[in-house]
């Protein structure tokens, strides 16, 4: 079986915005879209939905309502919808083997607060082995980033292997959209104790720290430019924290792509500080791509 795009729906405006975004992306990539509502029966203190059959019918209605809305807006997209008998996190993660990406909704809370990503969303992103895109409703309840003509912005950090997965996803997306790809590399001055003749030799040979960082970004992007020759690429090197630089560069973007290392904390997987900043403060949909 081929790849598909999976979107989680729960009847909220946020999830409907995510489903609409996923449908547009599925149309561009020529992939089928699978709408999934995760539901697990449990007794509720609501007399009208106490029985398992009543809850089942409500769950089916959520999936059907989302499918009807998406089909009406995107009739050319191959679409399916289903109810998965599980809680949201394992329900979506259990289907990711065939997923090109998993798309989820996130509540918007104004231009300053940005995303309010619930615990389910954080757990899905932290545990996913595929790219996860978080989408919030825009003004008027429409999906954020309805105008997908803006740049695709991707953060590049470290060497070629460190950012390969995020760059691959960003180039694929920019190619499918015919959009400009802005590759952003943030850097900061090394601490005083890090200065030494050996550590600074490469920077000196490049003509200074800024040319060194620009050269590093250019070399990392070179093979991806060759693989996607039709994608227009803007190289962006700026001093500052990675989160701040990325948020500034993506102010008018249609998608922000960040990588995620597999980190585990005392309470389970973590998404990392840069991804956390992007998810909570970006004005556009955010794709979090786990490293290979």
From TrEMBL:
This is Universal stress protein. It comes from Streptomyces solicathayae. Residues 5-136, 159-290 form the UspA domain. Belongs to the universal stress protein A family. InterPro entries: Rossmann-like_a/b/a_fold, Universal_stress_UspA, UspA. Transmembrane segments: none annotated. Coiled coil: none annotated.
């Amino acid at each position: 079986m081929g790849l598909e795009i999976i979107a989680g729906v729960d009847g909220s405006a946020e999830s409907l915005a995510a489903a609409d975004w996923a449908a547009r992306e599925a149309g561009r990539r020529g992939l089928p879209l699978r709408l999934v509502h995760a539901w697990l029966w449990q007794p509720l203190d609501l007399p009208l939905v106490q029985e398992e059959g009543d809850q089942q019918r409500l769950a089916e209605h959520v999936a059907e309502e989302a499918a009807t809305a998406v089909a009406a807006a995107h009739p050319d997209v191959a679409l399916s919808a289903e109810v998965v008998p599980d809680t949201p996190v394992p329900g979506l993660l259990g289907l990711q083997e065939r997923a090109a990406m998993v798309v989820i909704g996130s509540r918007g809370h104004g231009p300053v607060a940005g995303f309010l990503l619930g615990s389910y969303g954080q757990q899905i992103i932290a545990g996913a082995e595929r790219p996860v895109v978080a989408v919030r409703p825009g003004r008027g309840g429409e999906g954020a980033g309805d105008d997908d003509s803006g740049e695709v912005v991707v953060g590049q950090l470290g060497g070629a292997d460190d950012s390969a997965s995020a760059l691959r996803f960003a180039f694929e997306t920019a190619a499918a959209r015919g959009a400009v790809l802005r590759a952003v590399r943030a850097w900061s001055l090394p601490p005083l104790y890090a200065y030494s003749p050996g550590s600074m030799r490469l920077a000196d040979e490049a003509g200074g720290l800024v040319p060194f960082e620009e050269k590093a970004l250019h070399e990392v992007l070179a093979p991806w430019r060759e693989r996607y020759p039709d994608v227009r690429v803007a190289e962006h090197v700026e001093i500052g924290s990675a989160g701040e630089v990325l948020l500034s560069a993506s102010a008018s973007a249609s998608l922000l792509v960040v990588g995620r290392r597999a980190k585990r904390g005392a309470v389970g997987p973590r998404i990392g500080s840069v991804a956390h900043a992007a998810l909570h403060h970006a004005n556009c949909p955010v794709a979090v791509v786990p490293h290979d």
